[in-house]
Fold this protein.
Amino acid sequence: KKSEQELKDEEMELFTKYYMEWKGGRKSGNTSYTNIPRFYYRLPAEDEVLLQKLREESRAVFLQRKSRELLDNEELQNLWFLLDKHQTSPMIGEEAMINYENFLKVGEKAGPKCKQFFTAKIFAKLLHNDPYGRISIMQFFNYVMRKG
């Protein structure tokens, strides 16, 4: 027969063994948390000069890249000229309209910076109750000015 202390030791040993298996098994079974990208980084302290400089530089590079994506005045004028040239009749009052076919033609001619605006999704978003399935050139141009 085993003494009371030996029984307690054996019980503790079994408990530890099963606990570690359960804890380890659960950990290895659900590792999705290791795939979640880190989205928050603390701001560098005042005495971390190198980290502050790195943050400033990366922000400046990001802003430069974003500003290069924006349309400049000449590109906006060219876009307006192309939209006006490819408008689809009849006009609704004073408002010039464009159908999807001409919309795609303008998208091909407008250049790479404008390409992101010439999608079916954007056309559909701006499409209102026009009997000919057209959108307003002015509404589209305003959309580009706001988003670009």
The longest helix spans residues 4-29. Strands lie at 88-92, 95-99, 134-136.
